[in-house]
């Protein structure tokens, strides 16, 4: 395959962009071929990332220093190039980088597993370390289906979720994403057919809606004989629309699923590690799921790693079945570099005052986003923990919005009708002001105000 441009290896932002345009796929984008052009054509080139700052070069060669309002999609909670995390990777690199996990184990994985078991609700005691959030969801659903099979209930192999959710891009994970989204439109004929409840009514502090509680109960009851599990994102539905809901619905799901012999999976990939103001979003409800998925901030955003935790009841159920093994074993399972930095990241989080950091950011986002309510085209403004969202009455003008935010000094990546942020917890008041200023600018640029 010929590379575009000269045969020489180049360098610099212009060369990076040239190769990128010719050969590299980006998330949810078309390949740049003769028959298709990318909707957001020219990605910014990252030259350096440090603290809360990304150093970027734009297509026209201009350089920007932007506060990262995205934490690299919920993950870089301690910011970039953190000395403690850098050192954790380096120290492990001096010992070994990766070894297979079949038949071998090592201290970084053991330390991380011990930390996760200590940190998550008590009944979660068995840890499967995989390499991405989507895979941790696959593992979670596989555990649930296998558990039911092992217990002699093979008909229980469907999964209930609520609309408006997002759980990843692999096929089983896609099957529990919002059915109105692109995944189902394109893949409806190949995805497993799951059961969808309505999206939970919005509002973290809203009183639970009795009609919705009845809806959940009736749907689980009606499908109990074929349901292996219910999977939901607790408190915040992220990539499906940045919607918040009452923890009361999680308590209801806990009670209903237990009653009907259905397992409950909480996907805390986005919400885990303090983002919503509690260490885990499930803590708002005071309930423990049977299976929990973690990812993103698990490694402080340093390396690709995710975890699926389950209760002893689930693990024993599987172990007691006709096929006692869980048939899943990715090559990079338990990656030592990722495990070492994950354990360091959790240590950094718990060793600091993350509650105060998140509360401070929440207050800054509330104050800074308040003026958005008066903007034309703004439908809703919502803040919870270190998450801030402006919802417009129309799709965001991506390019104009991104550039307006950059001029205000913030890196944002709006989607659909949403301009949103989940900044690193180390963001100070000035960082948050830049981010909220960038969000207002992005909203204005989208509605032509
Ligand atoms: N579940 C949730 C709630 C997520 O937000 C994401 C990532 N946006 C995933 C699963 C998938 O994780 P990954 O992108 O690491 O595969």
TrEMBL record:
GO terms for molecular function: adenosylmethionine-8-amino-7-oxononanoate transaminase activity; pyridoxal phosphate binding. Keywords: Aminotransferase, Biotin biosynthesis, Cytoplasm, Pyridoxal phosphate, S-adenosyl-L-methionine, Transferase. Belongs to the class-III pyridoxal-phosphate-dependent aminotransferase family. BioA subfamily. Its cofactor is pyridoxal 5'-phosphate. Its EC number is 2.6.1.62. It comes from Spinactinospora alkalitolerans. It is found in: Cytoplasm. CDD domains: OAT_like. Catalyzes the transfer of the alpha-amino group from S-adenosyl-L-methionine (SAM) to 7-keto-8-aminopelargonic acid (KAPA) to form 7,8-diaminopelargonic acid (DAPA). It is the only aminotransferase known to utilize SAM as an amino donor. It comes from the Bacteria. Substrate binds at residues 73, 166, 296, 329, 413. It catalyses: (8S)-8-amino-7-oxononanoate + S-adenosyl-L-methionine = S-adenosyl-4-methylsulfanyl-2-oxobutanoate + (7R,8S)-7,8-diammoniononanoate. NCBIfam families: bioA, PRK05964.1. This is Adenosylmethionine-8-amino-7-oxononanoate aminotransferase. The record marks 28 as: Participates in the substrate recognition with KAPA and in a stacking interaction with the adenine ring of SAM. One of its GO terms (biological process) is biotin biosynthetic process. The modification N6-(pyridoxal phosphate)lysine is found at residue 296.
């Amino acid at each position: 395959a010929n590379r575009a441009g000269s045969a020489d290896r180049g360098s610099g932002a212009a060369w990076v962009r040239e190769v990128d345009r010719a050969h590299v796929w980006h998330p949810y984008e078309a390949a740049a071929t003769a028959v298709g052009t990318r909707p957001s054509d020219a990605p910014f080139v990252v030259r350096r990332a440090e603290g809360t700052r990304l150093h970027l070069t734009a297509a026209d060669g201009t350089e920007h220093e932007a506060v990262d309002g995205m934490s690299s999609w919920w993950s870089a909670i301690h910011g970039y190039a953190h000395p403690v995390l850098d050192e954790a990777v380096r120290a492990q690199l001096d010992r070994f980088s990766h070894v297979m996990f079949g038949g071998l184990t090592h201290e970084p994985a053991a330390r991380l597993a011990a930390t996760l078991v200590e940190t998550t609700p008590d009944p979660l005691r068995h840890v499967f370390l995989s390499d991405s959030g989507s895979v941790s969801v696959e593992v979670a659903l596989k555990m649930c289906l296998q558990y039911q099979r092992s217990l002699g209930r093979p008909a229980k192999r469907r999964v209930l979720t609520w609309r408006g959710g997002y759980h990843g891009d692999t096929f089983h994970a896609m099957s529990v994403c919002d059915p109105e989204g692109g995944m189902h439109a394109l893949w409806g004929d190949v995805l497993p057919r799951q059961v969808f409840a309505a999206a939970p009514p919005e509002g973290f502090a809203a009183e639970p809606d009795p009609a919705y509680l009845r809806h959940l109960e009736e749907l689980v009851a009606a499908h109990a004989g074929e349901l292996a599990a219910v999977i939901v994102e607790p408190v915040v539905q992220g990539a499906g629309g940045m919607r918040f809901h009452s923890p009361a619905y999680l308590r209801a799901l806990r009670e209903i699923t237990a009653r009907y012999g259905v397992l409950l999976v909480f996907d805390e990939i986005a919400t885990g590690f303090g983002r919503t103001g509690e260490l885990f979003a499930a803590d708002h409800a005071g309930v423990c799921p049977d299976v929990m998925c973690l990812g993103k901030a698990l490694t402080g955003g340093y390396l690709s790693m995710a975890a699926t935790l389950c209760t002893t009841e689930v693990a024993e159920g599987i172990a007691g079945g006709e096929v006692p093994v869980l048939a899943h074993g990715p090559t990079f399972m338990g990656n030592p570099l990722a495990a070492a930095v994950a354990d360091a990241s959790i240590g950094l989080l718990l060793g600091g005052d993350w509650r105060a950091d998140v509360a401070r950011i929440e207050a800054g986002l509330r104050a800074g986003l308040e003026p958005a309510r008066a903007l034309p085209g703004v439908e809703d403004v919502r803040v919870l923990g270190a998450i801030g969202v402006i919802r417009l009455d129309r799709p965001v003008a991506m390019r104009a919005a991104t550039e307006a935010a950059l001029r205000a000094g913030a890196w944002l990546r709006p989607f659909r009708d949403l301009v949103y942020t989940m900044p690193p917890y180390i963001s100070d008041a000035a960082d948050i002001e830049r981010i909220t200023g960038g969000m207002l600018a992005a909203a204005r640029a989208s509605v032509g105000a």
